[in-house]
Amino acid sequence: MEWSDDRRQLMSLCPDLVRFAAVARLEHLSGAADELGVPQSTVSRSVARLERAVGCPLFDREGRGLRLTRQGRVFLGRVRTALDEIAVGADELRRATDRPGEIALGFLPALGTAPVPQLVSWFRARRPGVRFRLVQSNAEGLLARLRSGEVDLCLTSPLPDEPDVTATPVAREPLRLVVPAGHRLAGRGAVRLADAAGEDFVMATAGYGLRRLVDDLCAAAGFTPRVAFEGAEISTIRGFVAAGLGVAVLPPPSVATPGLVDLPLTEPTAHRTVGLTHVTARHRTPVTADFAAMVLTRAQECFGGAEGDAGGADAGVAGAGVVGAEGGGG
């Protein structure tokens, strides 16, 4: 079994096995020592250690040469397989960490309409060879996938408050009361959320970050919303409102929906902060770190509704080829 310089360097992690394989191929201690660039005594000690470890001779000594025993031939097959697997694994890791590399990005489905495609487009303009693996889920699902290592970074809201996760706010978008055209409130320039206290609400499914935000806003306004329908996708919620089945509190759309009016809310807390999260202790590849840096500086530009009526970005918000994608909730 011939070894390239890179693989020989890697195999120094398991030197006894490498030396055994070299001796087995050459059937000569000194020849193996010369090939590996180590003293013959080092190779001899490695073979002796392995024979003690497996409990039987691996070679028959024939004059100045060596020949594998029956047990040694069986063991050699396993050793070669193991060394090849280690080498393949190292090559995979090397490719994963080399530029241009791959970024596994998780995000809320609502961010897949405009912000995420825009950020990916900007980054690929700078790094055309970078590949993205995209995963969509709700906030809880994203956090689980982040911890499992399935994704490197997540764009999510609300920001998790977890000891092992770093969450950095990158953008703020207003939440607005969405009503059907012709609704009694549709002609107003802005409304208090309490003005809709008696309405049926179309809400995000329980467990979603947006649902928690809206529940908290309603509680602060002094009422519990009467939930008529729940939906996992913001587009579905907007469709139900357009059909006259209730009102909703949602971030602004990237494209206006016919039959709907989005009313600014006067409550200063009527916004959601979108953050970039990663596992604090986990190593980030250079390309992932570069993408994160770009998101921190440019994410706010992707949220077209985050203008004056939202009060601007939070104080903590920095200045303003897809491999695969998985669907998820809204």
Description:
Pfam families: HTH_1 (PF00126), LysR_substrate (PF03466). Residues 16-69 form the HTH lysR-type domain. InterPro entries: LysR_HTH_N (IPR000847), LysR_subst-bd (IPR005119), WH-like_DNA-bd_sf (IPR036388), WH_DNA-bd_sf (IPR036390). This is LysR family transcriptional regulator. It comes from Streptantibioticus silvisoli. This protein is an alpha/beta fold and 330 residues long. It has three domains: 5-97, Arc Repressor Mutant, subunit A (Orthogonal Bundle), CATH 1.10.10.10; 102-172 and 272-326, Periplasmic binding protein-like II (D-Maltodextrin-Binding Protein, domain 2), CATH 3.40.190.10; 176-269, 3-Layer(aba) Sandwich (D-Maltodextrin-Binding Protein, domain 2), CATH 3.40.190. It has ten helices and 13 strands. The strands form four sheets. Strands 6-12-5-3-4-13 form a six-stranded mixed beta sheet, sandwiched between helices. β1 (59-62) and β2 (65-68) form a beta hairpin. α3 (29-36) crosses α4 (40-54). The radius of gyration is 30 Å and the shape is rod-shaped.
